[in-house]
Amino acid sequence: MVKKTRVNIVGAGVIGLTTGLVLQRNGYQVNIIAEHWPGDLNVNYTSPWAGAYIKPDPKLDEKWRKLEEVSYKTLWALSYMDDTSVIRIPGFDMYSKDLQINGEPWLKGIYHKFQVIPKDKLPKGVEYGISYTTVSMDVPKYLRWLLNQFTNAGGTKKKAHLNHLNDAFEPDVDIVVNCTGISARTFGGVEDDKVFSTRGQLVAVWAPHVKTAKALHEDDTLTYIIPREDGEVILGGTSDVNEYDGTPDPKTAELILNRCVKLCPELHQGKGLSSLQIIRHTVGLRPSRKDGIRLETEIRKNSAGKDVIVCHNYGHHSHGYARSWGSAMEVLDLIEAAVKNRQRNVAKL
User: Fold this and answer.
1) Is the N-terminal amide bond of 237 cis, ω within 30° of 0?
2) Domain named FAD dependent oxidoreductase: which ranges (predicted)?
3) Band (102; pLDDT cuts 50, 70, 90)
4) DSSP 245-311
5) Where are the domains of the chain?
6) Residue 60's pLDDT is what?
7) 1-52+137-194+290-349 to CATH, choices 3.30.565.10, 3.40.50.880, 1.20.1080.10, 3.40.50.720
């Protein structure tokens, strides 16, 4: 039997779990090492707090388009499977400023039923709008599904707190993948000062009659409504740069509720704001990064002087779920290119 190449992944958020699953399914023997796992609720464990749906970005930089396309198509396929919690929902995005974009052909080729809404059909104060069909996820259930798929495929896991990337350089490990998210700013051996927190506050309400995602972009404010599989609806939100406080603010929650009801009056079915059944208030720290996602490989030495391929995959800001599968596939491509390059170098010796 051919020995599989061993990979250690640091981090078990949506990026670490998805990357682990992709590598495990593609012939690697993967072990995920993390302090926090699905089911844990820690403000520095970002993934459980996300709204988690894919919202088209007409202004998206071309270098990130492949990541979103791969993720959207994969999650769309998962929406037909049981137990994933991924569902298909109609979506409407509105902007208070005219983006002066004529339909974005690349989005029309990806998103189901994508179209630019004619200006005469837009509400007062809205200058640009799009409609489409997308996917949303029940985050706790989806993270558990990813973990179960990973372990069922033969992947292993270890609950541990690492202080330094070198702690993952075990003697028989050939590849280490860094999926530390917001912790990449302080994690030993990485210490990326381009990483920062963007605090987001959400309100979860019980509104099973709401089936459509809506978003309204107004200057620096984004209001959004995300239905989930079980009848929960996520209301947001905020975007507080370099804020690390994990405690929900009551005044902010009130502002979110008022903005969301204005955007989607059917939330309270004409019974008033006080009739909303609030399930919980949450805060998450988005793992933002100047220059965007870090997706690259490098070679480092372990304690015995052996070359180890290190691949970085972090800095997804609010797009972790929307680009998770795409970035995981990019990691696979980067690793395979690095392995081939190492083999060529060895052959030259």
Assistant:
1) yes
2) 7-333
3) low
4) --SPPHHHHHHHHHHHHHH-GGGTTTS-GGG-EEEEEEEEEEEEETTS-EEEEEEEE-TTS-EEEEE
5) 1-52+137-194+290-349
6) 84
7) 3.40.50.720
pLDDT digits (tens, 9 = 90+) for 29-48: 999 999 999 999 998 899 99
**Alpha-helical regions (H) of the chain:** 14-25, 62-78, 105-108, 139-152, 250-263, 324-348
3-class DSSP state of 93? strand
88 is in an annotated binding site: no
Q: 290 to each of 221, 241, 294, how far by Cα in Å?
A: 20, 12, 10
Query: Left, alpha or beta for 69 (phi > 0: left; psi -120 to 50: alpha)?
Result: alpha
Q: Average pLDDT, stretch 93-113? A: 85
Report the predicted TM-score, pTM, of the whole model to 2 decimal places: 0.95
Residue 344 among known ligand-binding residues: no
Tokens of 166: 């070198």
289 carries a ligand binding annotation: no
Is 46 known as a binding-site position?
yes
217 in a known ligand binding site: yes
Which DSSP letter does residue 3 get? Answer: P
Scan for tokens 């974009």, then name that residue: 101
- Comparing 22-31, 52-61, 331-340, the range with the smallest average pLDDT is 52-61
d(CA 148, CA 18) in angstroms, rounded, equals: 11
CB 134 within 8 A of CB 91: yes
Position 333 pLDDT exceeds 70: yes
Euclidean distance between CA atoms 315 and 295, whole angstroms: 9
Does the annotation list 224 as a binding residue? yes
CB 165 within 8 A of CB 176: yes
Whether the CB-CB separation of 45 and 81 falls below 8 Å is answered with no
Residue 123 makes CB contacts below 8 A (sequence gap 6+) with 94
Contacts of 345 (CB under 8 A, 6+ apart): none
Looking at the DSSP assignment, which residues form a beta bridge with residue 30?
7
